[in-house]
Amino acid sequence: MSTTSTTRTNKNNKRRFNDDQVKSLETTYEAESRPELRLKQHLANKLGLQPRQVAIWFQNKRARSKSKQIEQEYSMLKSNYDRLASQFEAMRKENQNLLIKVQRLRNMTDENNGEENKNENICMPSCSDESRKADYLELETDVLNMDQIVEGCTLAPSENGCSFESCTFLDNMGSGSQWWGF
């Protein structure tokens, strides 16, 4: 029973630091987290502790401070990561939506270009440019006076409707098949 009681008394004899000792050690730690051997011995004498107890207290305090700092940095980094991840996801979705819109616009442009190619022969003058307006009107008067420009060619009504009788050199040559067989 003496060995068991000795073990219990050693556990019970572990001295905890009282409030005054902790305050003094904390104050010293704030000033210097790694005090020199002389300062540790001075504190131990002042507080009634062993120099080894003071050294271990500072070592443990540094370890706890480092762990606390790592936890704080981790929580800060985690919150930054979560914020950036949500922003990235939002930007990815926005990018996807924009790509879909671009594809729709390209499809619409392709459809419109296809319709313009079908209607190539139709000329639509722009009324915004005055010089073009004047050019268009001059062309219109030229078309109206075409019978004066081309002499000898007439528009003659035929049984099926209207026909254009031409007096070009091809008509004089005849419509033989030699012209078609290059």
Automatic annotation (TrEMBL):
Belongs to the HD-ZIP homeobox family. Class I subfamily. It is found in: Nucleus. Residues 60-108 form a coiled coil. SMART domains: HOX. This is Homeobox-leucine zipper protein. GO terms for molecular function: DNA-binding transcription factor activity, RNA polymerase II-specific; sequence-specific DNA binding. Residues 10-69 bind DNA. GO terms for cellular component: nucleus. Keywords: Coiled coil, DNA-binding, Homeobox, Nucleus, Transcription, Transcription regulation. It comes from the Eukaryota. GO terms for biological process: positive regulation of DNA-templated transcription. InterPro entries: HD, HDZip_class_I_plant, Homeobox_CS, Homeodomain-like_sf, HTH_motif, Leu_zip_homeo. Gene3D superfamilies: Homeodomain-like. PROSITE patterns: HOMEOBOX_1, HOMEOBOX_2. Transcription factor. It comes from Phtheirospermum japonicum. Residues 8-68 form the Homeobox domain.
